[in-house]
Amino acid sequence: MTVAWKESYRIGQSAVDQQHQELFQSLQRFEELSSAQELETMFAFLLHYLERHFADEERFMGDIDFYEFEAHRERHFEFQLRLQRLSEGAVSEENWQEVALQLQREVTTWLIEHILEWDLRIGEYYRELHSNDRTFDLPQQATLLLCDSDRSSRRRVRQVLLPYQYRIDEAIDLGHAFRSASEIRYDVIFLHCPLSQVGAQGAARGMAHFSDFRRRLRQLRPTEGETPLIFLSSEEGVVGCEQALKLGADDCLVKPLAGLEVKSCLQRWLR
Ligand SMILES: [Fe+2]
Fold this sequence. Notes:
CATH topology of the largest domain: Rossmann fold
CATH class of the largest domain: Alpha Beta
Number of helices: 9
Strand order of the largest sheet: 2-1-3-4-5
Low-confidence stretches: none
Bound molecules: fe (ii) ion
Oligomer: single chain
Radius of gyration: 24 Å
């Protein structure tokens, strides 16, 4: 199989990119092996290298307080377990070539998918943290409410808005959010209803709660302008977004939240 590093795999953090390139080079060498013994040595090296690479990448994620840290680390751990199991399979003089090809294919496929699906987001986040935000004309002060039961998603919004020093109150469910909104007039409210976790009926219930939240908010301060409600939808959330907009959301963002989208959304609604 073709095992080649591509520019599109670059995440923009030189140490991680360097290690990814070295991993691809190691995988290419699976085609140069000439015995079962060499395969075992090569596989042991690869296991060791991956372990070091994952540890380095995780340290980097921790340093920048990456919002998906836990889930990402879990992917590394799962793959290490899978490799561990593969390494326990018997290699003999008869089957080593077949095993070498299988290992090369498994690791390469995983690595490419993992980089594209997970590692590139670390790079995107890192760049956002260091971008100077000149493209966004956001006000100096704002009071936001962020309702989401998922801690990593709340952390994500905080990280994106770190340079602005906004007051961001958090809530973990709609009841909690409504109590906070009764006491404080927020400039913008972000709301997540976990539609996808509970099936079609649960989704309908979630949307009913959402629509009820909008109605109660209107009753709360009928004379003031309405607080913009930004619906946070899960990954498979296109339907969720459409429904939310029909039920009174002013805007919708799909998770995982991209920093640029959060900021451009706030630019539309913060005045
Ligand atoms: Fe990774």
